[in-house]
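It is worth pausing here to work through a concrete case rather than discussing structure prediction in the abstract. The textbook approach is simple: state the sequence, then state the predicted structure, then interpret. We follow exactly that order.
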Amino acid sequence: MDLSQELLARLDSLRAAMAGLPAAEGLRYLAEEFSGNIAFSSSLGIEDQLITHHIFEQELPIRVFTLDTGRLFNESYTLLHKTNQRYRKKIEVYFPRHEAVEQLVNEKGPMSFYNSIDDRKQCCYIRKVEPLNRALQGVQVWVTGIRSEQSGARQELQLLEWDEAHQLIKYNPLLHYTLDEVWAAVKALHIPYNPLHDKGFVSIGCAPCTRAIAEGEDFRAGRWWWEDNSKKECGLHAR
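Step two, the predicted structure:
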């Protein structure tokens, strides 16, 4: 039995052992079970800041990394700096391959993602998906900040699930949290967060592809707003 088969075989027992555990305890449990082989990908959003707090405050052996696409808001870079200072830890940063970015921009220009869904997904792949694949090499458990209410496609997810694309276990500790619950925890624990959240940005990605949303708009309305809502995924969490 190879490693991926062993991980898949453990999934049901892990689900049973972790049933009902809050996020902080679930992270601690998996950190003990998979020490050195578990990583958290942070987009520096409000959910991810809460998870980062639980990891750093408990001194858990979980790698925390983020993807710098080269197109982030200045506020996101400032938050990365503040977070490192607050916890006296370093969030690892993965960049896209510069050769791929240079080729894309030289061939299609700096705003090719507005041209078509295919061009946008190509940009996302180069700037996000490929760096993520490198960051997850050797990882057995991938922690994410996904919440089920973020989009219709995420409402069928489970706290622990098998990621076929990366051949690993994915843990979504905040899956059943509401946005209000996340905010309450962040404020109670005085966790630093991106000030763009206070300006109507509920989901913060690359600057050219993210806008604030109006009251009553769908959660994902601020991401790639020129596209059909049903296709608004960048490929990081493709199923």
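Step three, interpretation. Helices lie at 3-18, 23-33, 46-57, 74-87, 98-108, 117-135, 179-188. Residues 117-135 form the longest helix (19 residues).
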